[in-house]
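Hi L.,

You mentioned the student needs an example of a multi-chain input paired with its predicted structure. This one should do, with 1053 residues in total across all chains.
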Amino acid sequence: MQLSFTAQQIADFLKGTIEGDPTVKVSDFSKIEEGKPGSLSFLANPKYTNYIYSTEASVVLVNNDFVAEKPVKATLIRVFNAYAGLAMLLDMVEKSKPRKKGIEPMSFVADSAKLGSDVYVGAFAYIADGSIIGDNTLVHPQVYIGEGCTIGDNTILYPGVKIYPGCKIGNNCIIHAGAVIGSDGFGFAPEGDIYKKIPQMGIVIIEDDVEIGANTTIDRAVMDATIIRHGVKLDNLIQVAHNVEIGANTVMAAQSGISGSTKLGKHCVIGGQAGLGGHITIGDNASIGGQAGVISNIKENAQILGSPAIPVKDFFKSSIIFPKLPDMYRQLNQLEKEIQQLKEEQNKQSK
Amino acid sequence: MQLSFTAQQIADFLKGTIEGDPTVKVSDFSKIEEGKPGSLSFLANPKYTNYIYSTEASVVLVNNDFVAEKPVKATLIRVFNAYAGLAMLLDMVEKSKPRKKGIEPMSFVADSAKLGSDVYVGAFAYIADGSIIGDNTLVHPQVYIGEGCTIGDNTILYPGVKIYPGCKIGNNCIIHAGAVIGSDGFGFAPEGDIYKKIPQMGIVIIEDDVEIGANTTIDRAVMDATIIRHGVKLDNLIQVAHNVEIGANTVMAAQSGISGSTKLGKHCVIGGQAGLGGHITIGDNASIGGQAGVISNIKENAQILGSPAIPVKDFFKSSIIFPKLPDMYRQLNQLEKEIQQLKEEQNKQSK
Amino acid sequence: MQLSFTAQQIADFLKGTIEGDPTVKVSDFSKIEEGKPGSLSFLANPKYTNYIYSTEASVVLVNNDFVAEKPVKATLIRVFNAYAGLAMLLDMVEKSKPRKKGIEPMSFVADSAKLGSDVYVGAFAYIADGSIIGDNTLVHPQVYIGEGCTIGDNTILYPGVKIYPGCKIGNNCIIHAGAVIGSDGFGFAPEGDIYKKIPQMGIVIIEDDVEIGANTTIDRAVMDATIIRHGVKLDNLIQVAHNVEIGANTVMAAQSGISGSTKLGKHCVIGGQAGLGGHITIGDNASIGGQAGVISNIKENAQILGSPAIPVKDFFKSSIIFPKLPDMYRQLNQLEKEIQQLKEEQNKQSK
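Structure written out for the whole complex:
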């Protein structure tokens, strides 16, 4: 937290009510099971309830409906939703940190590039000809921004982000270290035994409020654009191929990947290491489980799992049977023999 | 396109024939379903045929055998193969772009490094002692080239590529941002409870005409070399372990990985997120599907899928049955009961 | 090797015994099947035994119990364990290489940062305010070390490593190019249709003797720390989510991933492309196979495979049956018909 607040100040900020000493001070956060004196913790998940009676945390956020069954040493702050309250506090602390601005020496900003007000450009960052950087945007050290890119306001490019020429990034975006935006799509035409490169002339468009994880890669389109709609959240090490479109507020977990020209709807949830084939359409609100392999269109609201993916309930039902396969195989062959014997016996009897 | 051509000029270049206004000008590419006036589009996939009657694109490349069933507003250029024609046009435009050359200030080139003619070295690039860079090669900003590397002619190293000491890259290669060439192989000898590092003394050799995707990693060999043969195309986020050899003109889709000492033949196709075990051999022209897990040698021309991988037809046939497993399980147990009853009845009758 | 040793010198170093010419010199390593004159090779795996009779290597390390069945041209050095002997030699050569030190121009070291003795800081590296770098540590070009980080002694940060503010790295660690340590965990709270970011206030702690592969990503905790215990070895392109803890001497192969808050025990082995769900516990010495998907707690010493993962023996037994599913399905339906006929026949007979 690197700041210090009394329980009363926090309760006022969160519009909560205090039980215990309102003057106790906290200057750090901790998990309830590892709570240290001088720290603030929270209880949101009921399976951690027992820890509230033994935690050393000085202040604990709890839901309004929490009922203590034993004495609690910590000062409690009751709020409507303890987890949301915690997020508000973390956010407040985050925003109180000083924000860098100014252009550090040993950075390269092309004469024809345009920087908004209060921009930060770290050392060893490279901003090429004709690029435009919006107000309050942070371009951390070792970032590369190619020719003719547009970056919006209040966006953070963490160290080492690489943005190829011509790409457009919106406002309030966060792109983590090592992410690559606008690399060539994987497009080759077979020509006898060899593959001839099809130049990738399009760009990547990233709308507002998008977060992109560390070392994630998003390829530029063959022509037109690969598009990441507003509010999308991508985790680390994700692959987004050329001409993909990801609908607004869709979230994808780490190491998942999308093949070329596939379109995802809004508000989908894609699990870790899931893979989506090319040229397919995923409906709004679809949920695709971890390690799923998707090779055909998926309807909105579908919940699928497995490779190839099937409805999640069906997948789990069949997965429970899978370890029984060797027994089923033996049983089936045994039954076949018994039926053969039954037939022979019946034949005898019928004579 | 950032250039402007008349339909006539394009038809001449592609040796095609014109239907419509030969003087109409285009200065951009577009997909047929999103075609804009002043742009050139193409029709190669029959499932997009309907769009040709409504597209706003000024010029459309079509195959010689295309037969219009309704009036078409755009000028048509008939060619032998519309997709190949498009690739030729994209290529021509790509090659007309000015190519950077010269050494930017704030780059580091060791005194003992040798640069060919017309090399570009971007700011914050680092070229260490004894490295040799071929003619016309582009070393973009923030690239690292370790001691004693050799890079061929006409090769492009995009921003942030890292090449460890001693590695050799051929001519006409393209290595995308964030790729790492020559990191240590994952080699450890267990020694009681701990793992002792086995120094990785080999290198990586990349032959001519290889393309390597963003954030892909290729480890150096324990001794000798990890080898990527000519014409290989690797997508993004691929892992190539130590002592692997990838045969000429093999292509690998994103997020696939190869374990140590495995040898791939020529002209193989590896799907996205596929994983190959260590110390195995994959024959020429093998096709390994997305998310496949390969743990044994694979013959040439084989087509496999699944984890562990089996012939692709078998995999799909069994995958269709997989969701029926719970029903099969119930049915099997039901049949067992019925057989028991049949036996008992038969026993009664036989008495 | 870039050095030159006689067979006698090597035998003395390894406490081995010589058969053949003790004065022959070697200056390189080679694999036995590709052995070149002037190089040293080794025979550890019996399946390569045949090569010892034809190898051109000048010296071959063999196990004490090796019995030649034909004449061998090379000088043999007999040691207790040929593979361990090789590792010792590789290690000795590695350590004899000159180690860089000093601060290169065009690097950035904040005034408030503290550097130990004999530290190397490469050009275009960035060391932010308040960071502390231990003795003999190598900070290669283009590395980023954020505010308030602590890096131990004898640690190597390869080119382009990015370490976010506040993280702690131990002694004798090796972090390969492009790895990202301390990026934000993937934490969002749904708020209507959108996802609100939960600031990630924790850090990453990496203990001693840890190796981290190229382009691997390790996220910082929401609060407290993501912890990598001593001796852990992570391969390339691995994802470690926020609040994960990896126990001492656990090894993970490339492209595997761990979801948030999961705890791995000591001395586990995780195969390539395996995925571990969130909030689970993996016991000590567990072995999780390649591409496994783990969604529940795993006991110590367990060996599991598949997605969802089951005991490895069960997985292979069922995998053998999987391709027989279409036949089983037909057979089952055939048996059902035959039972129906048997019943009808029995009914007739009983009348």
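You could point out the following to them. Residues 58 and 74 of chain A are 5 Å apart (CA to CA). Chain A is about 15% helix and 30% strand.

Best wishes,
N.
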